[in-house]
Amino acid sequence: MTSTKAISDLDTLLVSMQPELQPGVYVFAALPHDAAASGAGIVATVREREGLTVVMEEGVARAAGIEPLFRAAWITLTVHSDLNAVGLTAAFARALGEANISCNVIAAAYHDHIFVPVDDAARAMGALFDLQRRAGMLATSSKP
Q1: Across the strands, what pairs with 42?
Q2: Whether 57 contacts 11, CB under 8 Å
Q3: Fewer CB atoms inside 10 A, N or C side of the chain?
Q4: Taking a C-beta distance cutoff of 8 angstroms, is the pair 27, 61 a contact?
């Protein structure tokens, strides 16, 4: 576990979000409620009324015969964001939306994780770094 303090100030979050593209391709898939979803390759699970949604490494899904619903690149915002922070998701979703890039977001205890279409990974990273740069310029220009 990390000992860094969670950040809740939006300006600080944007300036220090430091997006990092994780290696590999990931898929979202839907499994029956009684499916055993554990082990290597599983990134996240969400139990919904309709079944179990899993996010997992594409190769593991393929080997298990699991049909992908969405192929994604995984971007982690490495800043330790507070789960009570307001506006971070809206800010990066807007930046990606303006670049015409869809995103699926998972907020975890320490970081926000953004899944974008695999073919849009480079453009998404560019849009996120532009957002971070603009936030930094605004922060610098507002200092006395």
Answers
A1: 56
A2: no
A3: C
A4: yes
Q: What is the pLDDT of residues 46-74, one digit of tens each?
A: 999 999 999 999 999 999 899 999 999 99
Residues 58-90, buried b or exposed e (16+ Cβ, 10 A)? Answer: bebbeeeebebeeebbbbbbebbbeeebeebbe
Pairing verdict, β 26-31 and 104-107: unpaired
pLDDT at residue 2 is higher than 60: no
Instruction: Domain 10-141: state its class.
Output: alpha beta
SS3 5: coil
pTM for the full predicted model: 0.91
Token pair recorded at residue 76:
């982690």
Nearest of 126, 121, 20, 6 to residue 76 by alpha carbon: 20
Query: Are 20 and 78 in contact, with CB atoms under 8 Å apart?
Result: yes
Distance from C-alpha of 104 to C-alpha of 115, rounded to nearest angstrom = 5
Domain boundaries, the chain: 10-141
